[in-house]
Amino acid sequence: MYLVKNSDLFKETGTGRKVVPIDFFEYHQLFNFLEWVYPGKRQDFLKLISDQPSFVSDIVASVVAKMQESKLLEDNVIRQALECCEQILIAK
């Protein structure tokens, strides 16, 4: 997968723009919550993610929204999550 950190990382080519690859590892380390899923249910959870990714994203979005409403999230965490989403959309 290729992501772009920001628009400064686009490199001009003769026919248009070329996306510069970056390491997705930093986002994975920051947002991976699989380690908190009960070990005996991880395989079922992974199957659910692959079968119905929008269902899982709805659950995650609801939890994040509630945490924000309860003032449990810091602004920098939200900023990083939005940046991660932006990079995925750019890559797509």
What do you see in this structure?
55% of the residues lie in helices and 4% in strands. It has four helices and two strands; from the N terminus they run E-E-H-H-H-H. A two-stranded antiparallel sheet has the order 1-2. Helix 2 packs across helix 3.
Spatial order of the strands in the main sheet? 1-2
Q: Helical stretch count?
A: 4
Query: Count of DSSP E strands?
Result: 2
Give the strand content: under 5%
Distance between the termini: 9 Å
Order of helices and strands: EEHHHH
Structural class given helices, strands, pairing? mainly alpha
Overall outline: globular
How would you sum up the major sheet?
Answer: 2 strands, antiparallel
Our Rg estimate from Cα atoms comes to: 16 Å
Mean pLDDT: 75
Number of domains: 1
| Share of residues in helices | 55-70%
Low-pLDDT segments: 1-6
Summarize the structure.
This protein has helices at about 25-30, 40-50, 55-70, 75-90; strands spanning about 10, 15-20. It has about 90 residues and is mainly alpha-helical.
Q: What secondary-structure arrangement, pairings included, does this model have?
A:
Layout: E1 11-12, E2 17-18, H1 25-31, H2 42-51, H3 53-69, H4 75-91
Antiparallel strand pairs: 1-2
Helix pairs in contact: 2-3
What brief labels describe this structure?
92 residues; mainly alpha; 55% helix; disordered N terminus
